[in-house]
Amino acid sequence: MTGKTNDTEQKIILLTIDLINEGGVEQISLRNLAKQLGLTTGAFYKHFANKNDLWLVVTKQLSKNMSLELAPILQKKYDSKTKILEIAKVMLLKFQTNPNLMDFLFFNPTSKSDLNLHSTEFNFLKIMNDLVSNLITENKLIIDKQTLFIQLWSFIQGYGLLIRNHATTFDEELVAQTLHQLIKE
């Protein structure tokens, strides 16, 4: 029975991710989601207490997926600055290719309210926090970790939104120059 329950929960998560990717989070209704999986709403609520509970689990899954995608970059013998630059490129290109998923990952109600910048519950966020700490140490920067993290995160998210909304196109050189400017002593 446990296997079937876990399988159903995983199916809910995967379908939710597919639906977000296709049409954005605004298009998702729990009733329709349950119906597409052949579940009653009662059966759905056995797995997730409410929409925010589902959003939290999906956010964690997307964070894990992003971490797995970035693993090859992290395993290379790059310094932290290069790793952050390579990660930024991947993220910004994802704003172009999977804009709805990136919007959800960064701006869904759970990520805006429950997501603490120092949380270790979200793999991707933990990776970025660790890289920022290493960046400060490697470059002997005199800046607060949270301040630098917010500056980097703000640039990536802001530039990502401009790309997503077709206000600009991805420019690798701009990303490199901006990162360099942010970590100057």
TrEMBL record:
InterPro entries tied to this protein: DNA-bd_HTH_TetR-type_CS, Homeodomain-like_sf, HTH-type_Tx_Regulator, HTH_TetR
One Gene Ontology term of the molecular function aspect: DNA binding
Source organism per UniProt: Companilactobacillus kimchii
Gene3D superfamilies associated with the record: Tetracycline Repressor, domain 2 (1.10.357.10)
Residue range(s) of DNA binding per entry: 29-48
Name of this chain's protein: HTH tetR-type domain-containing protein
Keywords, ordered alphabetically: DNA-binding
SUPFAM superfamilies reported in the protein's UniProt record: Homeodomain-like
Segments forming domain HTH tetR-type: 6-66
